[in-house]
Structure formats: C-alpha cells, structure tokens
C-alpha cells in the first residue's frame, strides 16, 4: 500500500473531507442531491457486511475470493484479451475490448460523479491484493461491471457459435456462471463493495452487453469494412477523455472530491481502443488480413508438442513486446511532454503536479510492469491483504461521520432511558443533525496517498496504451506470420 501522509489543512481546502454539507457546496446541486439519496444506503449496509464477514469468513474462502477477484481486474483482461488476436479470434477480441473499455469508462465516470464511499473499515475488513483499489469510490462496482458484461457476452457467443452437441458448450456456460458469481459475491465477501455497488455495476454491465451484442454486426462492419467511418472513432474517443478531464468550468464535470484513480483506468482502456480500432481497419485491408483475421481450424485441431511450444513462444514474445513498448514510449513521453505543457500552460487536475513545478522527469521511476498490472500484490499473503483502517481521504471522512453518529447514539440511548417520552422522530432528527454538526480533530486532516501523479501522466498513458492496442492487433500478429508462428504454424 502507498504510505499515508496526514497533514493539517485550512477549512477551504478539500472541503469534502470535512462534512457532508461541504460536499453539497463543492458539487453541482443535482449531483449533490443524487449523492444524498444514495449515501444512506451505502452507510446502512456497512454493519451488515461486517457481521456477514464475521460469520462466513474462513482461510480457504479468503484465498479463493482474493484470487478470483483478480479475474475482474485490468491485470487479467490486459493479459487475456491480446491472446484472442494472436490465436485467431479477433472479432470476439474486438467486441470484448469495446465492452470492457466502455465498462471501465462509464463505471469510473459514475464513481467520480457520485463520490460515494466504500463500506467503512473498520468495522469491515477489506481483502485486496491491489494497492490502489481502496483509493477509488465504491459505486458502481467496476469488478461487477467487467465480469458480468464479459460473462454475458461470452455466453451469448457460445450459444450462437457452439452447437448443442458440442461437449464444451455446457461446461463453458457453467464456467462463465461460476466466474461471474465468484467475482461479484467476492466483492461483498472481501468487504470492497456494498450490495448497492454490486447492483449498480450489474445494471451497467447488462446495458453494455445488450447494446454491443445487439449492434455487434454494425460495429464489425464499421471497424473492418470498406468505409472510412472508423477513423472518426479517434476524435470521438479523445472527446470522451476530454469531457471527463477538462470540462470543469461547467461545474457538472465528474472531477472527484478526493484523489481517485478511476480516471486513469478509463484513459488506459480508451487508449487501447484508440489504437485498436484503426489498426484493425488497416490490418483488414492489408495483405495479411486473412492470416491475422481469419480463423484457421487446423491451428486449433493440430496435435503435437510443436503447437504447444509455438503457442508458449508467441505469448512470451507478444507480452515482452508490449512491456518493452511501454517502457520506451513512457521514457520518450517524459522527455518530450513537460516542455510542451510548460510552453502552452496546459491545465491539470487538482491532484496532479503541474509541469511548471518540476524541471524534468528523466529520473522518474519507470517500472517495467504497468501500474494496472499490480503483479507484486499477487505474491502477498492473505494476512498482508487483510486491511483494516483508514486507507484514503474517502475513508477518513466516513470514519469521522461513523464515529460521530456512534457517539451520539450512545448518548441518545442514555437520554431515552431517563426520558421515555422522547419522540422517535425527534431523536432521529437530532442524530442526523449531530452527525453533520459535530466536528472532531480528524476533520482537519487529509490523507495524501503518495506518490502524486504528474500532469503529463494522463497523456502518456493515452499514448502508451494506444500503442499497445495497435501492436496487439496489427504489428504482433503480422510478426508471428512473417516468422512462421502464424495460425497455420504447427499443423500436421
């Protein structure tokens, strides 16, 4: 986990950490109204989730749900999705990338828009291998959106493309059902989401699945057909990034109150689409279109060690190319972008370090593994993954409200026992008033989740992941074909 730095702040900074009324000041009125409607539901579920954990948690279930949670993360999908393009299922791969990209974008957009917290810890225990997921808002659950939308799409694909007498049809459907249920139920078991978060993610997942499955033929025609409409996707996707990033003056932008990494996740997947869609069109109209896009049955039905060996080599080489591209591209962007930001005085989000405050990023740490692939967390033990306590500024505010209400409830119980005639409605009103009026010292603290991001990081991610999308669907499949590792390799 990133280290937490507590510091005192003045009352006019990060107001959302002080009091719910200050969220109302910082947010647009109708945005704040939606938050006030949803917030009691989230807070009401917290003690029930804690009690549920106390009753059902076991060491074996802890391990199971910790690991299955990774099947709904960027780690899993960023490794799994390129394989579809490298082994002959590009159409399915494009559809899943689109569903995933818009799922991550819209779930992150709604999270930043609503600013709703996760279940409070304590009393809830949070089981997670990721060092950043606890820094995000809770509603809706991105894990639920990803897993349910992908499971529904793959189920529909199996029912359409796999015959009833195929021995893999039923096991495939059962596996997808177990996968979705494990990821979704695991979010509650691990204390990372409330039922409200799950329902919101499931509703969003169904909308995304239905829309793309209904219009999948039109989508494929635009991406690989003879028209040039696909090139409009690039400015449209950039516009989506810009809307979420720069439309601040209208006061309806989902700029979060606390530092939330949802926007970075959205940029990563939209960047993949920016590279993937035009690259798919180029490949479909190249001399390698048959090799790169056609499904060759012989490569799937061939036997022998050569097929297995070639498949392993393809995965190793393909993933290595993507990692090398990331490191090289990020290094170049860190050298070129800061002077451009300074020259044009480009804006940045409130939790980013502006280019005018640093000289260069030549000595900035560049890890070979992308930040969305938190592989170090995969080696951690269950004990190291069990987090209790404040992990972000969001948690700090919720802790203050929870303790204020708990103190008042204890005082109220004593008063009610002495004065039995106290009306229930009056007591409830007093409790709500006390929860918002009672300040404690923690209201003057903000949790800083180090390290801060540079202003050029967002554009850098956009360029890096656009390159990853283009490499995965165009350059790498062509490389495999040229070197004899294409879809026909290993046929007997």
UniProtKB/TrEMBL annotation:
InterPro entries under this entry? Answer: PAP2/HPO, PAP2/HPO_sf
Matching entries from Gene3D superfamilies are given as: Phosphatidic acid phosphatase type 2/haloperoxidase (1.20.144.10)
GO molecular function terms listed in the Swiss-Prot or TrEMBL record: sphingosine-1-phosphate phosphatase activity
Keywords assigned: Endoplasmic reticulum, Hydrolase, Membrane, Transmembrane, Transmembrane helix
Carries keyword Manganese? no
Q: Where in the cell is it found?
A: Endoplasmic reticulum membrane
Q: PANTHER family, per this entry?
A: DIHYDROSPHINGOSINE 1-PHOSPHATE PHOSPHATASE LCB3-RELATED, SPHINGOSINE-1-PHOSPHATE PHOSPHOHYDROLASE
Name recorded for this polypeptide:
Phosphatidic acid phosphatase type 2/haloperoxidase domain-containing protein
Q: What is the lineage of its organism?
A: Eukaryota, Fungi, Fungi incertae sedis, Mucoromycota, Mucoromycotina
């Amino acid at each position: 986990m990133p280290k937490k730095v507590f510091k005192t702040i003045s009352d006019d900074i990060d107001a959302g950490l002080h009091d719910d009324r200050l969220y109302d000041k910082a947010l647009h009125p109708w945005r704040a109204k939606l938050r006030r409607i949803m917030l009691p539901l989230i807070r009401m579920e917290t003690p029930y989730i804690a009690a549920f954990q106390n009753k059902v948690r076991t060491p074996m279930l802890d391990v199971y749900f910790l690991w299955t949670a990774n099947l709904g993360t960027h780690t899993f999908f960023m490794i799994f999705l390129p394989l579809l393009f490298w082994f002959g299922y590009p159409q399915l791969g494009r559809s899943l990338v689109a569903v995933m990209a818009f799922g991550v974008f819209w779930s992150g957009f709604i999270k930043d828009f609503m600013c709703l917290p996760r279940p409070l810890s304590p009393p809830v225990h949070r089981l997670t291998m990721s060092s950043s997921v606890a820094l995000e808002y809770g509603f809706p659950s991105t894990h639920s959106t990803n897993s349910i939308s992908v499971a529904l799409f793959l189920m529909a694909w199996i029912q359409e493309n796999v015959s009833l007498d195929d021995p893999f049809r039923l096991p495939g459907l059962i596996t997808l059902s177990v996968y979705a249920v494990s990821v979704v139920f695991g979010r509650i078991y691990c204390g990372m989401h409330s039922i409200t978060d799950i329902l919101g993610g499931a509703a969003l997942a169904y909308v995304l699945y239905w829309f793309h499955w209904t219009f999948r033929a039109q989508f494929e025609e635009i991406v690989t057909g003879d028209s040039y409409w696909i090139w409009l996707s690039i400015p449209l996707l950039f516009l989506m990034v810009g809307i979420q990033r720069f439309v601040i003056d209208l006061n309806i932008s989902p700029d979060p109150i606390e530092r939330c990494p949802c926007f970075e996740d959205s940029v990563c997947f939209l960047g993949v689409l920016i590279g993937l869609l035009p690259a798919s069109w180029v490949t479909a109209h190249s001399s390698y279109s048959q090799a790169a896009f056609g499904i060759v049955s012989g490569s799937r039905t061939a036997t022998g060690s050569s097929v297995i060996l070639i498949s392993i080599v393809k995965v190793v080489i393909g993933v290595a190319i993507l990692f090398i591209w990331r490191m090289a591209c990020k290094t170049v962007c860190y050298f070129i972008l800061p002077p451009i930001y300074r020259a044009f005085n480009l804006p940045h989000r409130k939790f980013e370090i502006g280019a005018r405050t640093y000289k260069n990023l030549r000595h900035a740490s560049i890890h070979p593994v992308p930040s969305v692939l938190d592989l170090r967390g995969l080696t951690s033990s269950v004990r190291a993954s069990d987090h209790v306590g404040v992990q972000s500024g969001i948690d700090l505010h919720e802790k203050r409200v929870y303790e204020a209400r708990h103190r008042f409830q204890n005082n109220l119980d004593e008063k009610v026992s002495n004065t039995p005639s106290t009306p229930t409605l009056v007591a409830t009103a007093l409790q709500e008033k006390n929860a918002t009026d009672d300040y404690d010292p923690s209201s003057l603290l903000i949790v800083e989740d180090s390290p801060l991001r540079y202003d050029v990081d967002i554009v850098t991610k956009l360029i890096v992941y656009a390159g990853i999308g283009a490499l995965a669907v165009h350059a790498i499949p062509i490389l495999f074909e040229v070197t004899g590792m294409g879809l026909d390799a290993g046929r007997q």
